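Hi all, posting the design record for the shared folder.

TITLE: backbone redesign
STEP: 1 of 1
STRUCTURE INPUT:
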């Protein structure tokens, strides 16, 4: 539940932050592009990214289309979040053991993302980074330190 709240809070902040920077940009087209491609497969991210961004002119619009698509098509996986949080608490004094466990479940996390369209933090970051590597756009990976472990949102 904390993860969902953090995403909501960050989304709300970024939605209204520096709004004056976007006075001349209208997101109606970006939102409609995301809606047209609702439900498309994640199995070919380059094609999906191309479909979401080609009709748009600015990087801001492209970002908005991808953000809207992810927000509308990927469900938060609360059970994975709880599982990861419990392991993090269990291994709080053994970072290496946590990283080994985390690496062992990573393929399962991405399989669940592709098949069930559910993920926790790492899956969202994976989608963003995959998409933005395809585009000639800079992106900043937000990192937060949580329970003495590096955690991605």
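Okay, here is what came back for every position:
SEQUENCE:
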């Amino acid at each position: 539940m904390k993860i969902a709240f953090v995403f909501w809070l960050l989304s709300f902040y970024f939605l209204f932050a520096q709004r004056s920077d976007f006075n001349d940009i209208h997101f109606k087209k970006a939102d409609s592009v995301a809606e047209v491609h609702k439900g498309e497969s994640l199995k070919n991210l380059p094609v999906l990214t191309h479909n979401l961004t080609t009709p748009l002119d600015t990087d801001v619009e492209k970002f908005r289309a991808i953000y809207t698509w992810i927000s509308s098509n990927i469900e938060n996986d609360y059970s994975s979040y709880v599982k990861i949080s419990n392991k993090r608490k269990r291994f709080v004094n053994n970072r290496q053991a946590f990283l080994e466990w985390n690496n062992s479940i990573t393929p399962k996390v991405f399989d669940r993302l592709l098949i069930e369209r559910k993920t926790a933090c790492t899956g969202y970051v994976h989608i963003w980074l995959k998409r933005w590597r395809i585009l000639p756009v800079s992106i900043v990976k937000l990192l937060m330190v949580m329970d003495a472990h590096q955690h991605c949102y």
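COMMENT: Strands lie at 75-76, 118-119, 143-146, 149-152.
Let me know if anyone wants the other runs.
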